[in-house]
Amino acid sequence: MTSKCESVAQPAQKEMHGRMRRAVLGKYLVSCFGVLMFGAVACASGADVPAAAEPAQAVAPASASAPAAIFATVNGTVIPVRDFAMAYAVAARTKFFHGQAPDAEVSALAHAVGDSLVVNVLLVDEAKRRGIKPDAAVVKKSLEDFEQAQRNNEQWQKVRAAELPRVVRGLEEGTLAVQLNEQVLDSILGPGIEQERAYYAEHLDKFTEPEQVRISVILLKVDPAAGQAARDKATEEAQGIAKSLRAGASFAETARLRSADSSAPEGGDMGYLHKGMLPATVQEVVEKLKPGMLSEPFNVLDGVAIIHFDAVKAAQVKAFEAVRPRLAALWRRDENERVWSEFVAKLRAKATIQVNESQYPMGGVAKSEKSEKSEKSEKSEK
């Protein structure tokens, strides 16, 4: 018998699954298009496929353009260096743009790209083993969108006949991976009330309203392009205002009359704000004040400011019932990540994977994951 709680939760779970699937597929297709088009453009222009780390730093050797060069083998499936080089080039352009990145970041990205290629092979193999078929409708629609986007791309038109099978294969494999993802994650049930309460207790920081401060401001505006004399004059004026405020003048009335800030009509009241909402210079001043205190005049980008610390609202944990919808979404997100990570780890554990690590920054030697595990096992036995 389905409880009322379960019947309400099921549509929300399905919608969450839908959003997740669209995100997974979208990410895969964008990556697929980027890598394939990068290679297509290179082929059309007669250029070699670039070394993996371009445009930041070189990772793969100059021979990376040779189709026969092997980056990795996964259960007998070969991943050419060409594919790794193109995938890295696309990732590097996205992450580093055209800048020079630190060696550690280049190495980390190269390993992440290599790992994703290995995992893609594992996922496609597992999907085929389970009898999953490519989603023809999705492939057709995606291909139509791609062709439409490239209709005026002369380079693509030159290599279309040769590269189209790679595009189609990439799209088909993408839909296999997405369907496999659905199968694995659709088995997740919950969260039930006990799981929700446990998650709430373990992640109170996610459901805590941060401390908020209420401040008021008087701003004497100074054009950033004005000289020091203009800023000195505003500072002198602000010191006079601060003196009158300490003598008992109303901050709100003074703000209405003298402040150039947008909060002036409200007497300078900026309302309740939490850390991170204020510019760093203002936050630094506020942190030295207590409720009821007035700051000394200080420089900000737009001029000279005076702050009054009106009140503070302590951090507050929201009630369990008030956060249940968001809590359920967070629980499912975390559970999806946990289950999927464990699933991929199991596929890796059963696989025979050989990666030519000399293709990574700082090089290395070709290494088999299974042989590496055997070495560790032998050492532990000794």
Give a quick set of tags describing it.
57% helix; Chitinase A, domain 3; 382 residues; Triger factor/SurA peptide-binding fold; 2 domains; 4-stranded antiparallel beta sheet; disordered N terminus
Strand numbers in spatial order across the main sheet: 2-1-9-10
The total of helices stands at 11
User: Regions with pLDDT < 50 over 5+ consecutive residues?
Assistant: 1-12, 24-30, 40-67, 374-379
Under CATH, the topology of the largest domain can be stated as: Triger factor/SurA peptide-binding fold
Strand portion: 5-15%
Task: Produce a short descriptive summary.
It contains eleven helices and ten strands.
Explain what this protein looks like in three dimensions:
- The protein is of the alpha+beta class and 382 residues long.
- It has 2 domains: 4-187 and 352-381, Triger factor/SurA peptide-binding fold, CATH 1.10.4030; 211-314, Chitinase A, domain 3, CATH 3.10.50.40.
- 57% of the residues lie in helices and 13% in strands.
- It has 11 helices and 10 strands.
- The chain has helices at residues 4-45, 81-96, 103-129, 136-149, 154-185, 193-202, 228-246, 251-258, 280-286, 320-350, 369-381; strands at residues 70-74, 77-80, 208-209, 212-221, 269-274, 298-300, 303-313, 316-317, 353-356, 366-368.
- The strands form 3 sheets. A 4-stranded antiparallel β-sheet has the order 2-1-9-10.
- A hairpin with a 2-residue loop joins strand 1 and strand 2 (77-80).
- The longest helix is centred in the first third of the chain and has 42 residues, at 4-45.
- The two termini are 56 Å apart.
- Mean pLDDT is 81; it is low at 1-12, 24-30, 40-67 and 374-379.
